[in-house]
């Protein structure tokens, strides 16, 4: 059943993609973007952390900082939230207002799972910080691409052209927690999440995601038949 839209930016749709490293998010975001573009729809693909100049600088600090191993979990959480706050206000909210589909490679659930479940920070501050960072912009749908941890780690190793980054150096136990965290989250909020088995072929995953997008958000009209964007300032 299509979800009730509580966002003021109701003309657009935010779809976030979650999953561990190597789950295939990037490929599936590109495929979904292509399907939507074929219908003439305005599509923005972005990623977290990053997606803005400030966000990319923050990403660099978190992921590539040579002193990164000394970064405490609290700092990490706040840096991810800072990048997210900027992305929401600079890119996502304006795009939703003009009626675009926004596809985000990670969003607030990454903090819940990586910093909350895997790094074991308390959920109350994480939820509050997440809410503060996103304001009233919540995903209409979140797609979790689920792969067994060993598959995810093998894919990370395969694609790492140089040294793995700071997050990728985490051990298998960390990634087991990430996977479990996502599955638990999806179980608790089934109306927002869709879990797809990431070990299937890319074509099969793409079809399943498209079917779910249409089921949850309603059939996607072509640009000509789509609702008009919300006028700014009203
Ligand atoms: P990726 O987007 O290339 O997968 O890399 C981003 C890394 O940052 C990945 O290990 C997940 C992690 N991350 C968090 O730990 N918390 C967050 O809130 C976000 C957005 C990402």
Task: Assign the CATH architecture.
Answer: 3-Layer(aba) Sandwich
CATH superfamily, by name, is P-loop containing nucleotide triphosphate hydrolases
Tell me the β content.
5-15%
List the secondary-structure elements in sequence, H or E.
EHEHHEHHEHHEH
Q: Biggest sheet, strands in spatial order?
A: 2-3-1-4-5
Oligomerization status of the protein chains: single chain
Overall number of structural domains: 1
Work out the helix count: 8
The ligands found in this model are: thymidine-5'-phosphate
Which fold name fills CATH's third level, the topology?
Rossmann fold
Q: What is the end-to-end distance?
A: 29 Å
What coarse outline follows from CA principal-axis ratios?
globular
Query: Largest sheet, described in full?
Result: 5 strands, parallel
Number of strands: 5
Name of the top-level CATH class: Alpha Beta
Structural class: alpha/beta
Mean pLDDT: 90
Task: Please compute the radius of gyration using only Cα atoms.
Answer: 17 Å
Explain what you see.
There is one protein chain. The protein has one domain: P-loop containing nucleotide triphosphate hydrolases (Rossmann fold, 3-Layer(aba) Sandwich), CATH 3.40.50. It has eight helices and five strands. The protein has helices at residues 25-38, 53-64, 73-97, 108-118, 123-134, 149-159, 172-188, 202-217; strands at 13-18, 43-47, 101-105, 141-146, 193-197. It has a five-stranded parallel beta sheet with strand order 2-3-1-4-5, with helices on both faces. Helix 3 (73-97) runs parallel beside helix 5 (123-134). The protein is globular and about 50 Å long.
